[in-house]
Specification:
There is one protein chain. The chain is of the alpha/beta class and 341 residues long. The chain contains 11 helices and 8 strands. It has one domain: TIM Barrel (Alpha-Beta Barrel), CATH 3.20.20. An 8-stranded parallel beta barrel has the order 1-2-3-4-5-6-7-8, surrounded by 7 helices. The protein starts with 13 loop residues before the first strand and ends in a 6-residue tail after the last helix.
């Protein structure tokens, strides 16, 4: 692992990268040439979609190819939704068999993530909307904070987080919106859930963090985005700069600049001990905040069907869209002068 050399960070608090999902969910399609081109745009990290646990060897080879170009790989996955028969068999908040299936699935993802670790000082993160299957299988009653289903999901994630910690893998839970997932559909619910996992007796020494996505915040945010960020900050572990259209950064309405300004302001202005464990890492600069740009081209029909939002104008132009998005993100970061190295 020590043979690989990471790219030098450009900014003080953050590390910029992309989610590879808009190129392909097939690890074999992410070639060394493509990763070299992605690295040339200035990206420092990539988020690899791990959706088929039978392809462990292929995912590890992808991480090796990324490392050869100085790119740090993390993992993004989902709780599988309905199978071909329309029934849900994998669900952290479901019945015992569904919980067991989910736990087995996510631990398989964590084992893949561990094998993808190419830099000794960089634990691989497993990121995603892990609280329930995509499509929001919870009813309105079941989705209430503290409901039996909520508590079952918390307990399942706590068990998985403990086992992931023993592997040296970190879990980062993303909240979505009410159309994609009822259980965690805003920042307040996301924080409440993550805190409940971290306070659960089965979590052990593990500490789960959260991912804040500007696309979902655009849909489900409160009237005060700054307050949303400040409330979520103690569990913040990563951020998806993403437009409401999932298009090129700067072409939509998501308040990416305002959100990042609020994040940096809160970290820069508050005493580290008031921020909580996750943000203490950021505030002391021991760990950068990963910003993974997430854009959807619509070329992946399965993803398009699952999310119902994409920007068809970037089909076939994914690399150019990546470059333009990174340039736009850098423009935002350059304006936040105290975030510059």
């Amino acid at each position: 692992m020590s043979t690989y050399k990471k790219k030098a960070r450009k900014y003080k608090f953050v590390r910029r990268g992309i989610v590879l999902i808009h190129f392909s969910t097939d690890p074999n399609a992410i070639t060394s040439e493509l990763l070299e081109q992605i690295a040339a745009t200035g990206a420092e990290t990539v988020q690899v979609p791990v959706l088929d646990v039978s392809l462990k060897t292929e995912y590890v080879k992808l991480a090796q190819r990324a490392a050869e170009h100085g790119l740090i790989a993390s993992v993004v996955t989902v709780c599988p939704g309905a199978d071909e028969n329309g029934s849900i068999s994998c669900d952290p908040g479901g019945e015992e068999v569904q919980q067991s299936n989910f736990e087995r699935y996510l631990l398989s993802v964590c084992e893949i993530a561990k094998a993808m670790q190419m830099f000794e000082d960089e634990p691989v993160k497993v990121v995603g909307p892990l609280a329930e299957p995509l499509g929001g299988s919870a009813s309105a009653e079941e989705a209430k904070v503290g409901s039996p289903r909520w508590n079952r999901s918390v307990a399942t994630l706590a068990r998985v987080a403990n086992k992931a910690e023993n592997l040296g893998v970190e879990l980062m839970i993303e909240w979505l919106n009410r159309w994609e997932q009822r259980l965690l559909c805003n920042a307040a619910r996301g924080k409440a859930f993550i805190c409940a996992v971290n306070e659960h007796s089965r979590v052990g020494d593990a500490f789960v963090t959260g991912l804040y996505d500007s696309h979902h915040a655009n849909i489900e945010g409160s009237r005060d985005p700054e307050d949303d960020i400040e409330q979520f900050l103690p569990v913040l572990g990563g951020y998806h700069p993403s437009e409401n259209t999932r298009g090129i950064i700067g072409t939509g309405r998501a308040a990416i600049g305002d959100e990042l300004e609020s994040i940096f302001y809160c970290i820069d202005s508050q005493e580290p001990h008031t921020l909580g464990n996750a943000s203490l890492i950021l505030a002391t600069e021991k760990r950068p905040l990963d910003l993974w740009i997430e854009i959807f081209s619509g070329s992946d029909e399965g993803l398009a069907a699952a999310t119902c939002v994409w920007d068809s104008t970037i089909v076939g132009q994914e690399l150019k869209a990546t470059e333009h998005s990174l340039q736009a993100l850098d423009g935002i970061l350059d304006d936040l002068q105290f975030a510059t190295a």
